[in-house]
Amino acid sequence: MFRGAYQHILSLSEESLNGVDDSVVNETVDIIKSSNQIFIYGSGRSGLVGKFFAMRLVQLGFTSYFIGETITPIVTKDDSVILISNTGMTKSTLLVASVVKRIGAKIIAITSSEHSPLAKYADLVIHVANEHRDGSLAPLGTLFEISTVILLDSLVAELMVKTGQSEEDLRRRHAIWV
Amino acid sequence: MFRGAYQHILSLSEESLNGVDDSVVNETVDIIKSSNQIFIYGSGRSGLVGKFFAMRLVQLGFTSYFIGETITPIVTKDDSVILISNTGMTKSTLLVASVVKRIGAKIIAITSSEHSPLAKYADLVIHVANEHRDGSLAPLGTLFEISTVILLDSLVAELMVKTGQSEEDLRRRHAIWV
Amino acid sequence: MFRGAYQHILSLSEESLNGVDDSVVNETVDIIKSSNQIFIYGSGRSGLVGKFFAMRLVQLGFTSYFIGETITPIVTKDDSVILISNTGMTKSTLLVASVVKRIGAKIIAITSSEHSPLAKYADLVIHVANEHRDGSLAPLGTLFEISTVILLDSLVAELMVKTGQSEEDLRRRHAIWV
Amino acid sequence: MFRGAYQHILSLSEESLNGVDDSVVNETVDIIKSSNQIFIYGSGRSGLVGKFFAMRLVQLGFTSYFIGETITPIVTKDDSVILISNTGMTKSTLLVASVVKRIGAKIIAITSSEHSPLAKYADLVIHVANEHRDGSLAPLGTLFEISTVILLDSLVAELMVKTGQSEEDLRRRHAIWV
Q1: How confident is the model at residue B178 (pLDDT cuts 50, 70, 90)?
Q2: Who among B45, B156, B166 is closest to A55 (CB)?
Q3: pTM passes above 0.90
Q4: Residue ranges of the alpha helices (H) in chain B?
Q5: Does B92 lie at the interface with D, CB-CB under 8 angstroms?
Q6: Cβ–Cβ of D135/C2 closer than 8 Å?
Q7: Class of domain B2-177
Q8: Hey, is B80 helix, strand or coil?
């Protein structure tokens, strides 16, 4: 099952990423570049996916926070908020969305469900499929989560170009210890 | 760069996963199944990789902890500890390795460096390559981290078979909220 | 202000703790001792207060989890859940309360507001005052938070007696590193 | 034991806080006010103590980070680092101290042991006693931890005065949800 699983995951992830429009990628980059601060939230494994990206945003020189961590400040209308939820129905994520909407910050939703409550809150929806998967090879949100990790790391490569930065620039901002 | 990045990551990840021996996969499954508790640790993005896996282990019915979280108990000699570090030289990870070695727990190291200090502590080394990558497409540990996420999720599929469980069994143990 | 602040906090904390009924203390101990697992949740500084206690519960030999951490399993009807919120109106805490209530687990609410929505969900309310404070010496939830930290550490002393354990027993279960 | 415990903790905490010199309080305030960023670290319950303070620093308008959290950037020589360890011998805390020392950031150590390895790294030591305690009423680091929570919240009151801020200013910067 081991080899079948990763081949399944890799091949469906590629399909899923091929399905993301260039215009959505460009708009995401524009929103990130024009935001004062970029907040990220997700629950469970989607939260981990978001933290992966938040770390790279900091290394790219952006001001980024994961909502719920100790020192996260308040969101303002000049910020953007990236919310990650496979089903688009995770309650704590919707709670964040509703608060942030009222403040007037830009919301980017990453979800497999384009008609979910989360998608309705969003200014921009990045659709990442969690379909056509075999539940014994990629149970629950596995496909969505891995595809989103790769999507966001590919956005990092895009942001490096758009901000004229190299791997060395990221390394200099890489916090070490603990 | 966006599409180039994910194609680069997917293709090198596949190569890297193809390089993992069947015997290493089987031994990892055996160690996990025969451990009383499975502890996981990594620093930074490697820590997030480990947390991804810890969540699934719990959903598979194993007793698993991420070292450093609030309620993590002490490690005993009947436990195993999975340590994740790209370079195999992360100081806090080596600190954990040295303590755990003295206790007599089994150590599984996941690293791109088979001759690293971390690998020397390990009873079993899972080598995940971070080489041949283009730093502008997959900066720093990106390739290692994504390959390891996929590796561990493929181990989940393997563990589902070896313990006779379906996606439904995982869903029942899936904690929701917050 | 420094000395004025801690004298203010210490004196109001004592008052607040004197106001906790013996019967409430005893009932809390009984619920904890008879629970299969003890879950804890709070948001922001109230969450930190809960984590303080969760660590000691583990050192006392109880099975305890903080909701929202990586490896927290699902709550069952044989468990108890301690929810901490100054106002009793924190949305994520109420979200947890509503889910947990449906499952049938016992809810202990620690709050300064006995008529709050959180208190309504609870099987047992521990009232910890946040009143009579000077906002320039103990701003926002400061008094509630510190009083609750001390309350819960005093419950630890009570639990040590009721389970026949010494400091040495706690030390043996004290996880070190990282 | 419940009432005996909190009276013991309150009375020894007061003694311990009375023992902190005014000059140490003033110097701490000066370092915090003149730092570009304030980093905080501690392991276990000492880490929770630090997070309590980090939240308030953010609400006071300072730029503060807890080392080890997702988005924590690198420390520079214009920053200060507050390290909390009862024994002054916690390995991960010493690891942070050694890295930070090399960078040239100011180190404030909060510890019960003035001659500990941690104290040696520090530019300023805040001594918080963990002595004269009864291990059955205040086991392990309990007294140190609670005294330090109160000490740091009293510093908050001091910082409010020194920066001309009211409770209302903190409330405005208080992040809600999740």
Answers
A1: low
A2: B45
A3: yes
A4: 2-18, 22-34, 45-59, 91-103, 117-121, 142-162, 167-172
A5: yes
A6: no
A7: alpha beta
A8: strand
